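can u do me a favor
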């Protein structure tokens, strides 16, 4: 085979022969083959890795420093009150009696209620956005008028879909105090007639054994559910869109309907991301302060009733710190330490659940 035929064959296959006038050690660079990193690139890589490790350790040290400072400030109260501070039900600065069991109950009760409502709404919103139901509806509406492929109107389905997604995510940007005002002037008057009807007709049940006269557990939980909705919907939507298309196509190939594929294939496959979003939202709900301080009623009591006032640890700290003196600061620090412990336990349990659920989805990715 002649040299000309070889060159023509390489040209036909897209290969370019190296220039004989260029040295062999630079042929790789001419053809776009990767080259060894330069000394400056190695130095930049070492600096980047060093900074990454330093900031990672700095974050861990910062958490330990915060725990150490709060624990040091709470040490006098820990020595004085001990476990009775956690199991006590009386909060009276005048008599130096402090107990935060009702606040612990209110924190967990309101967070769980908000998490139930927020998870249902958040996952539903995530499915609605990831499946493009709004875009499909708008496309079908435009199809009636025959403008579904119009240069201007044809873009409307995707634009409305993106607008709805951005509006839901913007809920996270609303200040907590605005949610509190909205709950006082809108949510409470809206649900009060229904709550009183439940009290009158189902008052024998522990969840409805009191009337809703104003702030209470249910208004606080509903507003808190709206506050954690963007976290659940955004992360769940990303998890749903990350499901491999081959799983959906396989479900359709086996004869599954669209909703059967969503409920039986897509949601179980994306459960790791959905559970992660729920855990993050639970942490947000545990630490919410101003909205709950305005809506929950700030009552030092333990009750199953959804309509009775209650209190949370975060609201307790927000309401008492402005007037705290030297004797009450250690007590409030002790309460803050308990809140941090609850959050830590929730995160540890969430990490274990995530690790367990991720084991079952490795084979489908």
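np, heres the sequence
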């Amino acid at each position: 085979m002649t040299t000309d035929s070889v060159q023509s064959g390489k040209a036909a296959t897209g290969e370019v022969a190296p220039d004989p006038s260029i040295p062999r050690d630079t042929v790789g660079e001419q053809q776009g083959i990767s080259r060894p990193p330069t000394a400056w690139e190695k130095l930049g890589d070492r600096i980047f890795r060093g900074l990454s490790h330093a900031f990672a350790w700095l974050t861990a040290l910062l958490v330990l420093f915060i725990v150490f400072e709060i624990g040091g400030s709470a040490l006098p109260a820990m020595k004085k009150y001990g476990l009775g501070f956690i199991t006590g039900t009386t909060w009276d600065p005048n008599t130096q009696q402090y107990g935060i069991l009702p606040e612990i109950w209110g924190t967990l009760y309101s967070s769980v209620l908000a998490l139930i409502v927020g998870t249902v709404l958040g996952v539903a919103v995530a499915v609605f956005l990831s499946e493009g139901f709004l875009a499909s509806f708008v496309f079908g509406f435009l199809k009636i008028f025959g403008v579904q492929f119009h240069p201007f109107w044809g873009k409307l389905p995707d634009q409305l879909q993106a607008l709805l997604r951005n509006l839901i995510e913007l809920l996270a940007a609303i200040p907590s105090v605005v949610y509190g005002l909205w709950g006082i002037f809108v949510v409470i008057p809206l649900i009060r007639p229904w709550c009183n009807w439940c009290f009158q007709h189902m008052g024998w049940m522990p969840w409805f054994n009191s009337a809703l006269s104003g702030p209470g557990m249910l208004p606080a939980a509903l507003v808190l559910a709206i506050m954690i909705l963007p976290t659940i919907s955004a992360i769940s939507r990303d998890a749903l869109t990350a499901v491999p298309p081959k799983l959906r196509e396989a479900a359709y190939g086996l004869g599954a309907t669209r909703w059967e594929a969503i409920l039986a294939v897509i949601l179980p496959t994306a459960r790791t991301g959905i559970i992660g979003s729920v855990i993050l939202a639970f942490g947000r709900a545990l630490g919410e302060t101003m909205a709950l301080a305005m809506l929950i009623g700030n009552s030092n009591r333990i009750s199953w009733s959804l309509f009775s006032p209650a209190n949370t640890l975060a609201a307790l700290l927000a309401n008492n710190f402005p007037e705290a003196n030297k004797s009450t600061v250690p007590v409030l620090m002790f309460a803050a330490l308990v809140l941090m412990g609850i959050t830590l336990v929730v995160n540890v349990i969430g990490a274990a659940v995530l690790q367990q659920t991720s084991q079952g989805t490795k084979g489908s990715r």
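Residues 5-16 have pLDDT under 50 and may be disordered. hope that helps!!
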